[in-house]
Amino acid sequence: MSAARTLHLNTNVTGTGRHPAGWRTLDNPKSIIDLAFFTKIAQTAERGKLDAVFLSDALALRGHAHGPAQSLEPTVLLTALAAVTRHVGLIGTASTTFNDPYNLARRFASVDHLSAGRVAWNAVTTYDTDAAGNFGGGAALDKTARYERAAEFVDVVQKLWDSWEDDALIADRTSGRYADPTRVHAIAHDGPHFQVRGPLNLPRSPQGRPVLVQAGGSEAGVALAARHADAVFTAQTTFDGAQAFYRDIKARAVGHGRNPDHFLILPGLYPVIGGTLGEARQRKAEMDALLDRSAELAKFAGALGVTSDALQLDAPLPYDLLDSGTRSDVSSGFIRSTVLLARSENLTVRELLDRNPGAHRMLVGTPETIADDIERWFAGRAADGFNLNADVFPSGLAAFVDHVVPLLQRKGIFRREYEGTTLREHYGLPRPTSRYAGRADVTDTATSGALASHVAI
Amino acid sequence: MSAARTLHLNTNVTGTGRHPAGWRTLDNPKSIIDLAFFTKIAQTAERGKLDAVFLSDALALRGHAHGPAQSLEPTVLLTALAAVTRHVGLIGTASTTFNDPYNLARRFASVDHLSAGRVAWNAVTTYDTDAAGNFGGGAALDKTARYERAAEFVDVVQKLWDSWEDDALIADRTSGRYADPTRVHAIAHDGPHFQVRGPLNLPRSPQGRPVLVQAGGSEAGVALAARHADAVFTAQTTFDGAQAFYRDIKARAVGHGRNPDHFLILPGLYPVIGGTLGEARQRKAEMDALLDRSAELAKFAGALGVTSDALQLDAPLPYDLLDSGTRSDVSSGFIRSTVLLARSENLTVRELLDRNPGAHRMLVGTPETIADDIERWFAGRAADGFNLNADVFPSGLAAFVDHVVPLLQRKGIFRREYEGTTLREHYGLPRPTSRYAGRADVTDTATSGALASHVAI
Question: How far is CA A241 from the centre of its chain?
Fold first, then answer.
């Protein structure tokens, strides 16, 4: 951790890349289930000294007629990527609505052990009725309930990560003492959503706690992030808006007694890179020509909560439909950011679709213009770094690593070599002490059936 | 799959091995969180052409003052082991009581993809109040409810594994068709315990379905295994008893319309190997000398559901205490098998503890006596193979691989080379066709929010 402020860069992997038709340009269009494809992404990120590979996720299948989405379970895929890399961080998305905290805490701590301290959990609440249909058939919890559950879920997970102190595993061959029961703690959590006794059945992981990331820009998400997260992933489309978001959320963190330097604001960025602006535009145009426009329009209408025929490609958005009536929180954030972008630049539906609406800021340009833009946002404290989306992997990422990263290094804002080994070190975050350190409670549960567990095989 | 009947051998990994003091002989006594340790185990198993590495599991910490137990989450650890091996199968234990079927189906299917078809799920119901305390604080479900849930859980998981037909992923760059919606099926499961719409968000895995294993010898477990499992792991301590179990459970499978050759009976075996019988005994005695007898006695008493002072090392079991009164099903299987062993050989508590009570049959001997015993059980149809426990890894396994495996190969009952690449092929199991193949229902859910899922990052 050097004293100077350093840019942080993740590569954000969703499907085979952000461009919906990108898979049609791949040698192996079935890459979504091909370990070699993800290996190439992770090794390219590591070659570029990026902080981390970040896997998005969803818990339902959608749109499979038209293109790929994240399919392999993130903690499993990250473990495979840990085996083929040595430095790059490994960030996985997992839902607080459709998991149990004990299993999730253990899974991320396991990856942290196996990656020697490189893992992060991106906690999402999953506002998705398709996913809910895979977990009980009911509707997703309403937003307030989801975030209440999420806050308690994160609390339980972090307590479990702290339940073994760092020096609790003794393993002294001479005395036969294996763990120190005074340094292994029940968490005895008893809350509205979870009752979890603990401790975790795994010694504390290399980072103490895996890095905690929060994604999503709703008020409830921002509040959760400001209190708990080590980094927040956010969709910001304008410099001024991003500066305001940055100031606000850092101030909130300070209000919770936190050091704002230990809380990274990482907006999404979607660069499309060419040697000249014309080449960059050409790259995008070639992929756009492969788009199924009617399928894209139907997906877009679905996300906005309107029918396809309410949208016309060469007309503005139907603002009256979008502004009126009650709206589930499912799509409100998406609608808000889409309307903001459309109004601010007076865009037609076709132009909006070209701009990757509602998701991450697209920059079509040369390495120089993209590096300058990144520097401007970073220096202007609109961002501490970025989640980089590639139009298609691995080529979109390789272009960034080979042509933009060297410019950022020359500007003196990005590392030339990894200085640490853990993701906490890449991010400049301190390693937390267990909250239970020094507590005297003894929680050994040795006598209640260890042999029975053997019989269970 | 050759026509001749072939022995099947897994190595069963619990902690650092079966002997409670084995960790005190290791160079790195903290091996339980050391990937190099597990890598060595998996590579040794593969060198011996074993069918699989099998990870036990528990969902609570117990006995940590005295020794290690499985800590790293099995699907995560198996993924790491897939990266350092090419042939050996990878079997992970996971609970039907403390998981959701959608997440579990996806996780095992993901490992199956990343290992090119080498994974199996060992489904257990987890009769463990310590674990229950980590998942809601209540008592574990009673046995009937647990097995009803388990049967439905397995059904849901297998439906999800079938929800993509083999040829559903088209990924045709020219037409832009990615998946064939007529070959991707909602499962629309609506049962007493689970309502799961499906489909899985992952194309069908290399084995079609990961291999399904069931462990545990209770009536409910046996019934579940005979109907659904590809292999059953069982604790059998006598040849006659094992033959009877084998005959009974294979007959049950036939009664369900199954081919008995596609249902493997694999008792546990715990060999302690020396160049001479004296050396084998010496190896065991040296580890026994490192045991904490009072801790072992306390664990044993806990597993039997009695207090420590009810047991005396040099007296028989207190049969009256064990036979009388109501007994939770938590420990009844353990008690039954322990009492059977103690009565059949008139053993004291100390002698019982020496025999690894209630768990797996211990054979202290030379490579020749152990290979002969294995051949006898295999030829006599008391077993289709074994789950091999090592006293301590990796040396206990290496002794088996280097000295027993060549004898089994010379007897013509064990493979000299892997003949296939998947665990199904090692086990001689057919690859199942999706139950939905040919069904005409169309389940594309493309329009309901794919863009919203991008916003969620």
Answer: 21
Does position A456 have pLDDT exceeding 50, yes or no?
no
Which chain A residues touch B85 with a CB distance below 8 Å? none
Distance from CA of B190 to the nearest CA of A (A): 8
* Burial grade of B321 (CB within 10 A; 0-12, 13-18, 19 or more): middle
Taking CB atoms and an 8 Å limit, are A176 and B107 in contact across chains?
no
Count of C-beta atoms within a 10 Å radius of residue B285: 11
**CA distance, residue B314 to nearest chain A CA (Å):** 20
B187 within 8 A of B431, measured Cβ to Cβ: no
CA distances from residue A340 to A322, A354, A424, B369 in whole angstroms, order as listed: 12, 16, 35, 78
A6 CB-near residues (< 8 Å, 6+ apart): A413, A414, A415, A428
Contact: A201, B69; criterion CB under 8 Å? yes
Judged by DSSP in three states, B121 sits in: strand
Exposure string (b/e) for A54-80, b if CB count within 10 Å is 16 or more? bbbbbbbbbbbbbbbbbbbbbbbbbbb
Q: Which of B24, B65, B129 is nearest residue A446 as measured by Cβ atoms?
A: B65
B344-353 pLDDT tens trace = 889 999 888 8
Instruction: For tokens 């921002």, name the residue.
Output: A222
Minimum-distance CB partner of B298 among A72, A99, A447: A447
Which of these, B217, B271, B227, B281, lies nearest to B387 by C-alpha position? B271
Check CB contact under 8 Å for A194 and B136: yes
Q: Please state the φ and ψ torsions of residue B340, each to the nearest 5 degrees.
A: -55, -50
Q: Record the tokens describing residue B401, joined without a space.
A: 């691989």
Q: A46 with A86: CB under 8 angstroms?
A: yes
Of B390, B389, B363, the closest CA to residue B376 belongs to: B363
Domains of chain B: 8-279+360-437 (3.20.20.30)
Nearest-angstrom CA–CA distance, B39 and B85: 8
Scanning the structure block, which residue is given the tokens 């295994």?
Answer: B225
ipTM of predicted complex: 0.92
Q: How far is B410 from chain A (nearest CA, A)?
A: 30
Average confidence (pLDDT) over A171-180 = 94
Mean pLDDT over all residues of chain B?
A: 90
| pLDDT surpassing 70 at residue A453 | no
Task: Check B135 against A100: CB less than 8 A apart.
Answer: yes
List the single residue in B29, B73, B202 with the smallest CB-CB distance to A173: B29
**Structure confidence by residue, pLDDT tens digits, A157-166:** 999 999 999 9
Mutation target to probe the B interface, by most B beta carbons within 10 A, among A54, A61, A161, A338 is A61
The answer to whether the CB atoms of A137 and B199 lie below 8 A apart is no
List CB contacts of A319: < 8 A, sequence separation 6 or more. A339, A343
For B341, which DSSP code?
A: H
Cα–Cα distance measured from residue B113 to residue B161, given in angstroms and rounded to the nearest whole number = 12
Q: Count the neighbouring beta carbons within 10 Å of the beta carbon of residue B259.
A: 10
pLDDT tens across B269-307, in order? 999 999 999 999 999 999 999 988 888 888 888 888 888
Residue A452: the pLDDT is 31
What is the rounded CA–CA span in Å between residue A455 and residue A52? 41
Among B91, B126, B457, most A C-beta atoms within 10 A, so best to mutate, is: B457
User: Cα–Cα distances in Å, from A50 out to A79, A89, A338, A400, B415?
Assistant: 18, 8, 29, 11, 46
Please compute, for residue B283, the number of CA atoms within 13 A of its CA located in the half-sphere on the CB side. 22
pLDDT at B203: 97
Q: How many CA atoms lie within 13 A of A413 on its CB side?
A: 23
Helix A219-228 and helix A143-162, axial crossing angle in degrees, nearest 10: 10
Give the strand pairing for A195-196 and A189-190: antiparallel
